Amino acid sequence: xxxxxxxxxxTEGALAVAADxxxxxxxxxxxxxxxxxxxxxxxKITAGFDPEYMRVRRVIRENNLHTVCSxxxxxxxxxxxxxxxxxxxILGKLCTRGCGFCDVLTGRPKGLDTDEPRRLxxxxxxxxxxxxxxxxxxxDDLADGGASxxxxxxxxxxLRDPLVKVELLIPDMRGKMQPVLDILGARPDVFAHNVExxxxxxxxxxPGAKLQRSLDILRAxxxxxxxxxxxxxxxxxFGETREEIIELFHQIYxxxxxxxxxxxxxxxxxxxxxxxxxxxxxxxxxxxDIGHDIGFGHVEAGPLVRSSYxxxxxxxxxxxxxxxxxx
Length: 327
Known about the structure:
globular; 8 strands; alpha/beta
């Protein structure tokens, strides 16, 4: 069992935040709230745009690709791209949902880009990546939620490199299980679907989604005959209570999920949900300990932890165990 805390951060003033004291009493511990763009000291870094960052950006642009790093304004973009890694976002850049926490553009996508899997695989080849994380916008306009593009993308990647490790982070497919099974059938090394928040806050944070639907997807992955490493993640800072976090931990654990990520919600703009509370780094250690004690194979927790941040460092030990069992 392993748990780890990262305390990366973003530049002061990068995100506007506001306090909302109308929510239920949040998780116990020091309360740090902000009503301006100033961030707690543990959320501050300085980082430059080094040559590797510029190379990754060039390859992504040349292949007309999208990344969750840029589309969702991830605060870790300079670090990850500077290390030559990126989390690709397929199915275009317009999402059919409008979640209150997410900076991805909402709109009505037009058609389906069937050449996207080839271009993504070409970009991965140019970057020389051996480990790839792929997520997508939500495409409620498609009958299969875009599952066919996930499958085609994984196929293209492995045509070029049969040994490439792939993590797929999928949307909820409107609760349709066949698209989920189709994606599992493509044999990703890591299968991920994020629950995002506690049950009480779903209507405000994640309208159009249901916690039970997400739990059912994780359970289906756990029960699949050729089981991948199963992963989920959620954010804190919306006004959840400690009791609700513990309850969510248990709900996730009952699905058979192996790995959980926990990060601080950061408000992308004033149009998004306000940050109710900033959790100090030591409290993420406590949350990781709770998850570890419940029995998860790995808990990754920290202020700037995101599902895709250092994804294969998170899952390395679990992947090695899976490989040993199948040998």
